[in-house]
Amino acid sequence: EAQVTQNPRYLITVTGKKLTVTCSQNMNHEYMSWYRQDPGLGLRQIYYSMNVEVTDKGDVPEGYKVSRKEKRNFPLILESPSPNQTSLYFCASRTPYEQYFGPGTRLTVT
Amino acid sequence: GQNIDQPTEMTATEGAIVQINCTYQTSGFNGLFWYQQHAGEAPTFLSYNVLDGLEEKGRFSSFLSRSKGYSYLLLKELQMKDSASYLCAVRDRTRGAGSYQLTFGKGTKLSVIP
């Protein structure tokens, strides 16, 4: 089954404790991206990757890092999480015509 | 940058037809997408328009006018399960050659009532 997976699905953590949210896709897509979704603000792109070892900032990259060492994986790293990064995060991969989203990771930073 | 506008909320009756509008401003337009998102779930793809006109897919249709920077999503024979947020997203080429970016509107929350 073609899919995008994310882990963990839910995470509660404390300010400053480094965390990684994993993302993996099995569709051999070159393009992957990370979004955060907040009430009243919609989906905003954090980072994207056009291929292995090629990443670039989206609209809200501050406080996040990404890496793309393999085509299928695109982890999101929060080196020092802060409460304003409490959000619902979606990983996505796409073809030119359709974007597939992962199930989401609900992160709470206290 | 981009500016994508859609109504925040709409309410419609089961069995009726509803039209959700989306207007956008962009310099390098390369397609418009509609997504459905139920509360707490991931968005799912509904439709894609890159040329002017109407695309029909079952109960859902999407229309695009590039000259007016305008699209709408038409939902017919509304069902209770259609209660969800509907996201308009515009793809453009504003970040360099070979880089197409997808920017989402804030979404329209549709409530279907009996």
List keywords for this structure.
heterodimer, A: 110 residues, mainly beta, seven-stranded mixed beta sheet, four-stranded antiparallel beta sheet, 11 strands, B: 114 residues, 0% helix
The SS-based structural class of chain B is mainly beta
The rounded Rg of chain A comes to 13 Å
**Can you count the beta strands of chain B?**
11
Strand content range of chain A: over 45%
User: Ends of chain A: how far apart?
Assistant: 36 Å
Distance between the termini of chain B: 40 Å
Question: What Rg of chain B, in angstroms, do the CA atoms define?
Answer: 14 Å
Overall average pLDDT of chain A? 95
Spell out the blueprint of helices and strands.
The complex is a heterodimer of chains A (110) and B (114).
Chain A: E1 4-7, E2 10-13, E3 19-25, E4 31-38, E5 42-51, E6 54-57, E7 65-66, E8 76-78, E9 87-94, E10 99-101, E11 105-109
Parallel strand pairs in A: 2-11
Antiparallel strand pairs in A: 1-3, 3-8, 4-5, 4-9, 5-6, 7-8, 9-10, 9-11
Chain B: E1 3-5, E2 9-13, E3 18-25, E4 29-37, E5 44-49, E6 53-57, E7 60-65, E8 70-75, E9 84-92, E10 101-104, E11 108-113
Parallel strand pairs in B: 2-11
Antiparallel strand pairs in B: 1-3, 3-8, 4-5, 4-9, 6-7, 7-8, 9-10, 9-11
Provide an overview of this structure.
The complex is a heterodimer of chains A (110) and B (114). The mean pLDDT of chain A is 95. Chain A is built from no helices and eleven strands. Helices cover 0% and strands 53% of the residues of chain A. In chain A, strands 2, 4, 5, 6, 9, 10 and 11 form a seven-stranded mixed beta sheet that branches. In chain A, a hairpin with a 2-residue loop joins strand 5 (42-51) and strand 6. Chain B has strands at residues 3-5, 9-13, 18-25, 29-37, 44-49, 53-57, 60-65, 70-75, 84-92, 101-104, 108-113. Chain B is mostly beta strands and 114 residues long. In chain B, the strands form two sheets. In chain B, strands 2, 4, 5, 9, 10 and 11 form a six-stranded mixed beta sheet that branches. Chain B has a five-stranded antiparallel beta sheet with strand order 1-3-8-7-6, with no helix packed on it. Chain B has no helices and eleven strands. Chains A and B meet through strand 5 and strand 10 of A and strand 5 and strand 10 of B.
